[in-house]
Amino acid sequence: MKYLTIDTTTKVTAVSLAEDGRLIAESFLHTAKTHSERLIPMLDQLLIAASWTLQDLEMIGVVRGPGSFTGIRIGIATAQGLAQVLKLPLLAVLSLDALAWAGLGRVEDLVPILDARKNEWYTARYRWVKGKEEVECLTLPQAVPTELWLEHLRSLDRPICFVGDATEKAKTRIEEVLGENAVILPEYVSLPRGAYAARAIWQRWQETGVGELVEPLYIRFSEAEVNWAKKEEARRRLEHE
């Protein structure tokens, strides 16, 4: 089965083409341009490079969050549009689940950390089943204060492998708190990649075998939604005074 994956949950635009779980081609771009500027040109170039056409595709996969609110919406809208036009099944995976593939084969716990702003990370904790390409989720995806999460991980007293777009910036602090238990993968490995999404989507397809209704996973409200809620609360208070 030939399929396309799209991941725009961070500042990285990651697109891949795969067949039966095997990576055929991937495109990675981490520049100042927006996802809306990058995504379609990257897809066109990748199809040409692989000698594929849109009509060759049999499935569309997308990463649905958590991450950038705008990026999530762009990725899902593009994937939904392609799936609808091409009449293909659409599947989705979480950004943290996809990033877990960066640590395939490692025995230590794997912790993706994505910048959630406000001194918080989107994060979870995984462990690969030794000798198998199976991952166990030990701590469910959440938005958590960075220092609180690091203190929790330190209390586990075991090697922790970090991946994700927040890793490079937080490297010094992670090593200060966890010491020798901190395992920091290189940035080119720990950033979101099309290859990771391709493997995660294929695993999802093997589990379900059908398309699904894809909804974004934001975990928490956006800044605009928080401000709107505050204004509504203030308005209601005024009305009752």
From TrEMBL:
Pfam families: TsaD. One of its GO terms (molecular function) is transferase activity. Gene3D superfamilies: 3.30.420.40. InterPro entries: ATPase_NBD (IPR043129), Gcp-like_dom (IPR000905), T6A_TsaB (IPR022496). The keyword RNA-binding does not apply. NCBIfam families: T6A_YeaZ. This is tRNA (Adenosine(37)-N6)-threonylcarbamoyltransferase complex dimerization subunit type 1 TsaB. It comes from Desulfosporosinus fructosivorans. The gene is tsaB.
